[in-house]
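Hi all, posting the design record for the shared folder.

TITLE: backbone redesign
STEP: 1 of 1
STRUCTURE INPUT:
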């Protein structure tokens, strides 16, 4: 580990700590009240984004429950660096939004196709016009529904939409994000229905609940799977596509391991190279959002996080070189968790022998035995086979999961994994 890393890791841990986040929230509210300003939430809507369609069904409820103003912005699709597999992202988003809508009691039909460019242009023009007239929240649900169902759309000047999208994109970029269906309040971002509970909790703590409204969250955080055993007479396989450089993999790991045990499933560790090591860019804005989002999730889940020693490059390769051996020793899960915890919560440099020895021994393995396998390349063929299968499932990022014919992406979707284990297709 370099001297710079030794300095940055503790500093980053402080910046990502729950205590600092709470202090930032309190400071923002004190300053806002002192200046006599209303609580304004900025909402960034992408017309052809399924999650934005879901958000339109939730934002009126947010406004009814909390004394806030919601300022809408119209934005375009994420830039290429944020959507390196754009066609796959669009296809997955539609499937995922349909499942999420059904789970949350919202509306998004599973048969929807991606809208055509001409329809998107008409919808964006109508949305921009509604924003300009101060009628966005009254008119946008109907516009969005017509776009996704192929219904008639109003005719408005297209140049208004182009100007609105340029302004929305500029504001989103200046504030530090890149996706639609996002909310920005007091320096913090909240993406889609899955993160709305964080914003609601923050508004409650700020005393912004309207008189007569309840403090029940609009969308509660997804609960952990129930601790019941698998009722099926056959053992199911739970395939866990993971990356040692993914902090979301770290958040998922301990819960996936517990879920496999509870449901009597055979867990398959399917490691892949990190996206950036596969030539897919991860710019600073994306890195910063991921770190802050993971910090929030880790705090909620009671998972240590923040003392980071980024394992990009050789540390990941060294980690993977030992994973097949650890698996053969019956300690694959323990080793995965030890590596992930080491680099994301304990600041262990996996690029050094000293760091790798700490990881290996904390997993209950022998360092003497590990050295015979460290830095070998025999794992690469397996990693590539795992990547190829993941792509064939319509997924490209981690953590991803497969149970039978069910394949899902993201640690937010463990409830779907659990459902597939309980009722395999």
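Okay, here is what came back for every position:
SEQUENCE:
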């Amino acid at each position: 580990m370099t001297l710079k890393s030794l300095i940055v890791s503790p500093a980053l841990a402080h910046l990502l700590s729950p205590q600092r986040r709470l202090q930032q929230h309190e400071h923002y509210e004190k300053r806002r009240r002192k200046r006599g300003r209303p609580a304004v939430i900025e909402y960034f809507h992408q017309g052809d984004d399924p999650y934005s369609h879901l958000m339109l069904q939730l934002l009126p409820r947010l406004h009814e429950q909390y004394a806030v103003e919601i300022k809408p912005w119209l934005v375009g699709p994420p830039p290429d660096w944020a959507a390196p597999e754009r066609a796959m992202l669009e296809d997955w988003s539609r499937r995922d939004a349909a499942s999420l809508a059904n789970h949350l009691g919202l509306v998004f039909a599973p048969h929807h196709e991606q809208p055509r460019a001409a329809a998107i242009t008409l919808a964006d023009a109508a949305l921009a016009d509604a924003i300009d007239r101060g009628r966005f929240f009254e008119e946008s649900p109907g516009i969005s529904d017509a776009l996704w169902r192929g219904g008639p759309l109003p005719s408005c000047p297209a140049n208004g939409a182009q100007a609105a999208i340029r302004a929305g994109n500029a504001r989103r970029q200046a504030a530090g994000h890149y996706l639609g269906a996002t909310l920005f309040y007091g320096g913090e971002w909240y993406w889609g229905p899955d993160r709305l509970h964080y914003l609601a909790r923050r508004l409650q703590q700020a005393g912004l609940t309207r008189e007569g409204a309840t403090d029940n969250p609009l969308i509660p955080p997804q609960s952990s799977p129930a601790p019941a055993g698998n009722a099926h007479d056959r053992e199911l396989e739970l395939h866990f596509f993971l990356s040692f450089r993914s902090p979301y993999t770290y958040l998922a790991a301990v819960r996936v391991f517990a879920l496999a045990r509870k449901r009597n499933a055979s867990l398959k560790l399917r490691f892949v190279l990190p996206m950036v090591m596969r030539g897919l860019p991860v710019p600073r804005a994306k890195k910063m959002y991921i770190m802050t989002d993971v910090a929030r999730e880790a705090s909620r889940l009671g998972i240590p996080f923040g003392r980071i020693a980024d394992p990009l490059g050789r540390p990941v390769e060294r980690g993977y070189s030992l994973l097949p051996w650890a698996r053969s020793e019956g300690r694959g899960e323990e080793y995965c968790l030890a590596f992930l915890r080491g680099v994301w919560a304990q600041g262990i440099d996996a690029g050094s022998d000293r760091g790798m020895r700490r990881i290996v021994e904390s997993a209950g393995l022998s360092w003497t035995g590990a050295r015979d396998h460290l830095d070998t390349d025999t794992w690469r063929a397996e990693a590539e086979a795992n990547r190829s299968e993941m792509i064939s499932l319509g997924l490209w990022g981690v953590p991803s999961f497969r149970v039978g014919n069910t394949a899902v992406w993201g640690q937010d979707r463990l409830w779907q994994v659990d459902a597939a284990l309980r009722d395999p297709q």
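COMMENT: Residues 1-7 have pLDDT under 50 and may be disordered.
Let me know if anyone wants the other runs.
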